[in-house]
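User: Hey, quick favor. My workstation is busy. Could you predict this chain's structure for me?
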Amino acid sequence: MSTVQLQMDEVTWKHAQQVANQRQSTVEALIKEIINTLATMLDTEDPFLGMFAQEPELIDQIVASTMQSRENMPLRLSNG
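Assistant: No problem, here it is.
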């Protein structure tokens, strides 16, 4: 394991702490998660889908919500 020293401005540091606290995590764990997520995005042909590679349940919810919306408000007009 490597040790890395990181410098950032106060505003960025406060944002990092806020996000980590909201996720009940640490800034170190948050940075690791961001790097792993970005690496996953690079490993996929579609960067948008790569963002969600670690969130299959979220994708299921998005698809279900989209299908429900489409049933309620069809995108196509019927020829009748």
